[in-house]
Amino acid sequence: MRRQPAGLRTLTTAFLTIWLIAAVFPFAWTVWGSFKVEADFFSRQTWWYAIEGLRTTQETGGPFTLGGYEGAWIKNEFWKPVINTLIVTLSVTGISLMVGTLGGYALARSGHRYAFWVLIAALVFRAMPHITLVSGYLLPFFQLNIWGFLPTTIIVLVAINQPFTLWMLHSFFLSIPKDLDESALVDGCTRFQAFRMVIIPVMWPGVITTGLFSFLLGYNDFAVTSMLLRQENQTMIPKIASFLGSIQNEGNVMFAVAAVVSATVPLFILVLFFQRQIVSGLTAGAVKG
Amino acid sequence: MPHRTFAAFIFPSILAMLLFITLPIFSVMVQSMFIEHPAVLTTVENCGPFGGCTTETKVDTVAMAKLKAEAPMGQFAGLANYLNHNHLAIDDLREIFGTKSGFAEKVSSLMNLPFYRALAFTLTYCFVVTPLAMALGFCIALAVNTLPRLMKGPAIFVSILPMIITPLVGSLILSWMFNPEGIFGATLQWLANDPKLSLRASPVLTWIVILTYGVWTNGPFSFVVFYAGLQTVPMDTLESARIDGATRWQATRFVIIPHLMPLATFVALVQLMDNFRVFEPIVGFSAQANATSLSWMVYNDLVSQDAQQFGSAAATSVMTIIGVLILLTPVLIRTWRDFNRKVA
Amino acid sequence: MNMKLTKAVAAGAVSFAALIAGGGAALADCGIQGAGSVRILSNDFEALRVVNAAAAECANDKVKVTSNATAEHKNIQGPALTANPAEYTVAMVANNSIVPLLNDGLIRPLDDLVAKYGADLQPNQLIKIDGKVMAIAFMGNGQHLFYRKDILAKAGLDVPKSYEDVLADAKIIKDKGLMEYPLAASDKPGWDLAAEFVNMYLGTGAEFFAPGSAELAIDNDNGRKVLETMRAMTKFMNPDYLTYDANELSKIWDAGNVALMNQWGSLAGAAIDPVKANKDVAANTGFAAAPTISGGSIPAAALWWDGFSIAKNISDDDAAASFQAMVHAISPATVAAHSEVATWLVKGYVPGPAAIGVMGNATGGAKPYPMQPYMGLLHTALSSGLADFIAGKEDADQALKDVKASYDASAKEGGFLK
Q1: At what angle do helices C316-329 and C46-56 cross, to 10 degrees?
Q2: In this predicted complex, what is the ipTM?
């Protein structure tokens, strides 16, 4: 690449600096505020309280407090929803990918018209507001006695996730040359063997990127998990919502803030870890889609 | 690929979608055509914990159970749920366009109807946020791409932060920051030198805040996709463009952007759809007074109120799907052409 | 930085100790006769968690007790109790959330159980419908007046008794320069805004519906008077009032920005909490019954109760065990140990300072939140139909027209109107 002229470089740097600050500031502010009491972090007097910690000092004797974390993790046993979330998101990601790679591969390699219509149908399915779907599940689930359990929720999330997964993986598979699996077929492999031995190994970046988006969906889901899980199986986001309180009852917003900050840590690690694959993965797939 | 192999490969995926999406969508469509049985009411005496009894009306559950046993779906009402005041409001439309005189008056009467008010915001959000977020993502991608190798990682990481934080709490915290006493609200008051300026009080400012939030939170998705796309721009094409004397701008316009076009289609598809279902920022910013959306209407029918209105929610949901389909038609036609090219 | 790690560790130790103690108590059980399964569905807040924990004490070899406290309880309860056998044996309900259960006939009359096991219950705890006990109330709630003693004293005013007083006082407070925006109300379009209207309209003593039918009857002088009052109050409110809900009110009250407001009794305790509240404000916070309106004699606020009901689609053994466990859970002993977390309706409860307002509403003769089968539909219609009015964009007549149109559409869908 050529070196940029000075004017353009200044512009780029300025733009990028502004964007990075805009992206990181609310989060940094939240991390900082999670060590304050609610009267400071959500002060209706002045935001300066959130910096100084006036009320935090009044209530706890110091400008910083672990009260939010203590309330979330110890008093409210936030580790339980964390474990449930881990189970849910890992299973959703795993199953979504297994089912989705098979389906996406078939869609990418089939030349028949119905493959197109399956894709379009998947798109229409994605348009449905989740909340409507979920309220339809309730009665049958109660009657079948499968409401409230983790596996039910996992399967529902996998299903809701399928349209996106199919679309994305389908475009990844399109980017892999047909010759690759066709030569494997000529060599006497079955379709499935060709898929498993030849295609999947070159598909890793795509699989990981799609997996990351599935993971985020399961991780951040509220509509499905809040309605379909009983208390002992509750995941993080509904738990955080319950910290916020309801119309007639006081919540404890700082528990929610502390919980959100804690909930973001595993995502950080995940993103840092897969940073490379996300980028290279998307490259391979969607470009040619 | 033979039909059988295709079926075998796609079976699990199709089964999951059939059971948990197609079936419910079908039942929602059917439900949207029905209304409840005429209620059999009786007047009874209620006594509460605060002393005193009052006569109140209640539903005769025995009589109702009988009606339900005979016809579990309720009464067939055709499109009544779609056409009533809370949805397409056909009668009100007729009145507005039949009698009201001025254009402004017509518009304001139209905006007084819940469905059109929600639709107006939904479409505005969709068409403002989608292109702006894509443009923002594209610019970030270009900028990050010029960074030295070591700084790229952290920059990518920070750039996708807005996408990661749970909207439930993210918009709550941002909404507080935009409060007149919050850090942004107070700074803006100071900048505008107007101590009474409030971003939450006027409809226009509320919309601007929500749209800004939308661009901020949707930008990173476009960024990730476009940044990935930039890595595959063929170096030799760029190089030859340079030798031919193309300026940097021309190279971007005639080499990079065409290369990213298929990606842009994919992003537009996903983002238009997601933005059409905008919901969280409205609740997070407590903006119900000035901004509602179709998804918010569904939520209001099903979750936030005491009486759940399934038929009404079903009608709104079906209209959401139709709306998304209309929005996506151009993209779908494009996909159809691509597909036919592949077949041929 | 003075991070309170030691306190965190100590709290961990305490909760561990409580766990052991709790385990011990569970073995002691609470003398339930018979066997059965107790499965509780409730909202998720402190007072109900106390009740759920007390019910769990009843577990023994023959009685299994589980509970699910979730904010989504209203949306889950219908399908959960429709299934046969029902997923839950006990549904914790309030004035509004019991209505869908009654409409669908999902809960059972409790008269025989009350006669057998209900010796500790007071007559006013029994929620009777059509002569049958359908629920047992154990907590009261409602919106009532919060006032600032210091501001009223500086302005030379008494505690306002009516909304007319509130408006007059607000003008004086503003004119004297004591406060820019002396009033606040939960006027955020949605459930909150509708509740404001319902409160005031109840205070006029008028009926919401034509007697014996679902025909809406709020388009009258009382309705217009209520709307006028609501609009008049917004002149003394922060311009952001359209975004204020009950939680927001608590915060601006704590910041000392408001002199008079109507707020939930369940949030009163936090406003005068010696640790968490703003000390200057808390010391000057007073509670009173909600003001009257339009020359009425009763506080213009709905009375709310929280209680429990027993599912219909369960075995009689489960119902008996559930009822006994719940009676134990709301026993005078439980209440005595947690008297500060709610305004209890249970025998032997001594109201604390935070309960003055709710008690004031009750003794003043405030009406309970209506339990008509279609009240929820009206609440929904009000929640969006009044938005433009309270924002100052349309007049009262148009607002009432919008509400009626919206209500009629949903009442037809619900089968209540032809």
Answers
A1: 120
A2: 0.86
CB proximity under 8 Å: C 101-160 to A? 141
CA nearest neighbour of A136 among C97, B82, B304, B20? B20
Judge if A67 and A139 occupy the same domain.
Answer: no
The alpha-carbon gap from C249 to the nearest alpha carbon of chain A, in Å, equals 10
Q: State the chains in contact with A (3 or more Cβ–Cβ pairs under 8 Å).
A: B, C
Same domain, A24 and A113: no
Contacts of B54 in chain C (CB under 8 A): 367
d(CA C55, CA A18): 56
Please give the residue of chain A at the shortest CA–CA distance from B27: A136
**Per-residue confidence at C148, pLDDT binned at 50, 70, 90?**
very high
List, in order, residues 6 or more apart from C93 with CB less than 8 Å away.
C77, C101, C135, C306, C307, C308, C309
Q: What residue type is assigned to position B214 of the chain?
A: G
What is the DSSP-derived secondary structure letter of residue C37?
A: E
Res. A199 pLDDT band, cuts 50 70 90? confident
Q: From 1.10.3720.10, 3.40.50.2000, 1.10.287.70, 3.40.50.300, which CATH number describes the B114-343 domain?
A: 1.10.3720.10
Amino acid found at B235: M
Chain B segment 74-103 residues within 8 A of A by beta carbon are: none
Question: Would residue A116 be called left, alpha or beta, if left means φ above 0 and alpha means ψ between -120 and 50 degrees?
Answer: alpha
- Residue C1: predicted pLDDT: 35
Do the chains contact at C243 and B200, CB–CB below 8 Å?
yes
In the DSSP assignment, the letter for residue A194 is I
Q: At what angle do helices A113-127 and A79-109 cross, to 10 degrees?
A: 150
What is the least distance, in Å, from the CA of C240 to any CA of chain B?
5
**SS (HEC) of C56-73:** HCCCCCCEEEEEEECCCH
Q: Is B261 on the interface with A (CB under 8 A)?
A: no
Is it the case that residue C14 has pLDDT exceeding 80? no
* Contact of B93 with B265, CB cutoff 8 Å: no
A17 is in which domain, residue-wise?
6-72
pTM: 0.88
Domain boundary among A72, A103, A121: A72
Q: What is the CATH number of the domain that holds A106?
A: 1.10.3720.10
In a domain, residue A200? The reply is yes
A45 beta partners: none
Using one digit for the tens of pLDDT, what is the confidence trace for B55-85? Answer: 778 888 888 888 888 888 888 888 988 999 8
| pLDDT exceeds cutoff 70 at C365 | yes
B29 close contact with A: CB closer than 8 A = no
Residue C8 has pLDDT above 50, yes or no: no
Contacts of C354 in chain A (CB under 8 A): none
CA dihedral angle for residue A148, residue A154, residue A155, residue A158, rounded to 10 degrees: 150
Contact C261, C185 (CB under 8 A): yes
Residues A114 and A198 occupy one common structural domain:
yes
Between CA A215 and CA C165 the distance in angstroms is 57
**Among A101, A285, A267, residue whose Cα is nearest residue A205:** A285
Does residue A154 belong to any structural domain of this protein? yes
Q: Please name the chains neighbouring B, where neighbouring means 3+ C-beta pairs under 8 angstroms.
A: A, C
Cβ contacts of A69 on chain C, cutoff 8 Å: 8
Q: Which residues of B touch C405 (CB under 8 A)?
A: 85, 92
- Structural domains in chain C, CATH included, are 19-140+304-354 (3.40.190.10), 142-302+360-413 (3.40.190.10)
Domains of chain B by residue range: 62-112, 114-343
Residues A115 and A199 in one domain: yes
Q: Do A64 and C76 touch (CB under 8 A)?
A: no
**Is A1 within a domain?**
no
**Which has the minimum average pLDDT: B135-139, B168-172, C302-306?**
B168-172
